[in-house]
């Protein structure tokens, strides 16, 4: 396949409960992934607290027996509906997973977090930890 080709996702659908989401004023968190370790609860608590302080509606994408982050509402759209959810909400923050691949072309602010430091070199770990700290600082300072 030539490098200039872009393959867009197909089969995307609209989430039927978009009316329950604050358009442009919500953040969808995706703290769970099957193939990567999770970030500490305190990390997520701080991000949620900062978004709530700014008036955002906070939602956690959950599946099966996963629990929503403290202070957030659970939401369980189908994978084919998730793009409509994050575009309507305006912001997505999640652990780097296949969902990030699906949401690559979503028209919203996206932050993918890389918490699996055991498989990264020291330099990669430092860069990723720095990115996470920068993200938290931007949230605290009102830039997110």
Notes on the structure:
- The protein is of the alpha/beta class and 144 residues long.
- The protein has a single domain (18-140), classed as Rossmann fold (3-Layer(aba) Sandwich), CATH 3.40.50.2000.
- 31% of the residues lie in helices and 17% in strands.
- The protein contains 4 helices and 5 strands; from the N terminus they run βαββαβαβα.
- It has helices at 41-53, 82-89, 98-102, 122-140; strands at residues 26-30, 57-61, 73-75, 90-95, 109-113.
- It has a 5-stranded parallel beta sheet.
- It starts with 25 loop residues before the first strand and ends with a helix.
Show the helix and strand layout.
Elements: E1 26-30, H1 41-53, E2 57-61, E3 73-75, H2 82-89, E4 90-95, H3 98-102, E5 109-113, H4 122-140
Parallel strand pairs: 1-2, 1-4, 2-3, 4-5
Keywords:
5 strands; alpha/beta; 144 residues; Rossmann fold; globular
Q: What is the overall number of helices?
A: 4
> Which runs of at least 5 residues are low in confidence (pLDDT < 50)?
119-130
| CATH-defined architecture | 3-Layer(aba) Sandwich
Report the radius of gyration as a whole number of Å: 15 Å
CATH topological fold name: Rossmann fold
Strand order of the largest sheet: 3-2-1-4-5
Helix content: 25-40%
